[in-house]
Specification:
Blueprint (H helix, E strand, L loop, with lengths): L2 H18 L3 H9 L5 E2 H8 L3 H13 L3 E6 L2 E6 L8 H11 L6 H25 L3 H5 L5 H14 L7 E5 L7 H7 L2 E6 L2 H13 L5 E5 L14 E7 L8 H11 E12 L6 H6 L8 H10 L2 E10 L5 E9 L4
Parallel strand pairs: 4-5, 4-7, 5-6, 7-8
Antiparallel strand pairs: 1-3, 2-3, 8-10, 9-10
Helix pairs in contact: 1-4, 3-4, 3-6, 11-13
């Protein structure tokens, strides 16, 4: 590319960026995408805009490099572009900084709550109806023994503040609870579905683990009843793809961690096997590792150790450690 062509390309990119940032609705969309991803139909409901109009605005934002997409089965979800992926990085970041200072209107907040509740209800309904066969369905993707040892090793090598308190979010049938109970003085098992929580309780009782308290709570809300700055370790195995807002989950769990505490997330890498929605109640088809890192960073957590491994059925698992550092 010649110098003239390079200059023209830079001018075109800058023009597209300034055009994208020149519309109030597009700025509101960027503000909303700071903490979560949404489909076109969801954005239409949130802002009371026809789909043709919203698609037009999203196309402009996409052409400017301000948003990117991910496919979830037959749906397309939009998110803000990750750092270091844009030509005019400083200007893009300044736009984000300015829109993030905007207050979200009450009408938008109300619509967001409706959508969050719909996502929560979808997940809860699945687990209420499929509690007894959850394990067999989950085993279609990855049974717990497949990643148990890797999580245990990562936990052992984590430099934790103490061995006082561990929390497991969404313990499933409770298979990892005895491991936590052996390593920590007190363990809290938290789930938003009472049937699943009872299954975990039975497994723990049969394993003679007595230092576990079972709590019915919703980790996808704005805070946990446990309080803040409490846990040395929080574990969430195959949970993120079931919650309405994984980004919000990171923020909630970060509050619950002590300084220097660790969050260990086990989940699927991004995939396109849409059958997992119906068979396993998945809301999200795995995650790009960069998404997890960005949500962690937004929540005040830094990257720690990472383990990735592929399964024979085509899925790939990521086990990620994130560390809370109040000095960040």
């Amino acid at each position: 590319m010649t110098a003239t062509e390079t200059t023209n390309q830079a001018l075109n990119d800058l023009s597209a960026l300034l055009k994208a940032a020149s519309d109030p609705l597009r700025l509101q969309v960027l503000r909303l995408l700071a903490q979560d991803s949404y489909g076109v139909s969801e954005l239409c409901r949130i802002f009371s805009v026809r789909q043709s109009g919203m698609s037009h605005h999203l196309k402009i934002l996409s052409q400017a490099g301000l948003v990117t997409t991910r496919r979830e089965g037959n749906s397309i979800f939009y998110r803000r572009t990750l750092p270091n992926a844009f030509t005019h990085e400083s200007l893009r970041n300044e736009i984000y900084t300015q829109v993030d200072q905007l207050e979200i209107s009450q009408s938008v907040v109300e619509q967001l709550e409706v959508i969050r509740n719909e996502r929560v209800s979808s997940s809860q309904e699945f687990f209420s109806l499929n509690n007894e066969k959850f394990r067999s369905q989950q085993d279609l993707i990855a049974s717990f023994p497949v990643y148990k040892e890797q999580i245990s090793e990562l936990m052992k090598t984590a430099d934790l503040p103490s061995a006082d308190i561990a929390v497991e979010i969404g313990p499933g049938e409770g298979e990892f609870l005895p491991v936590l109970a052996d390593a920590f003085s007190q363990v809290y098992a938290i789930d938003n579905n009472n049937n699943m929580l009872e299954s975990a309780r039975v497994f723990a009782d049969n394993s003679k683990a007595r230092n576990i308290e079972f709590i019915l709570d919703d980790a996808s809300s704005n805070e946990l009843a446990l309080g803040e700055d409490l846990a040395d370790l929080i574990v969430a195995n195959m949970v993120c793809h079931h919650v309405p807002s994984p980004a919000n989950l990171f923020a909630v769990l970060a509050k619950t961690l002590k300084n220097r505490g660790s969050l260990i997330i086990t989940d699927l890498c991004l995939h396109n096997q849409n059958w997992t929605r119906e068979a396993c109640g998945d809301l999200w088809l795995g995650f790009d590792p960069n998404d997890l890192s960005q949500w962690a960073q937004n929540a005040g957590l830094s990257d720690g150790q990472s383990i990735y491994f592929a399964l024979r059925n085509g899925f790939q698992i990521q086990i990620r450690q994130f560390i809370k550092n109040n000095a960040i």
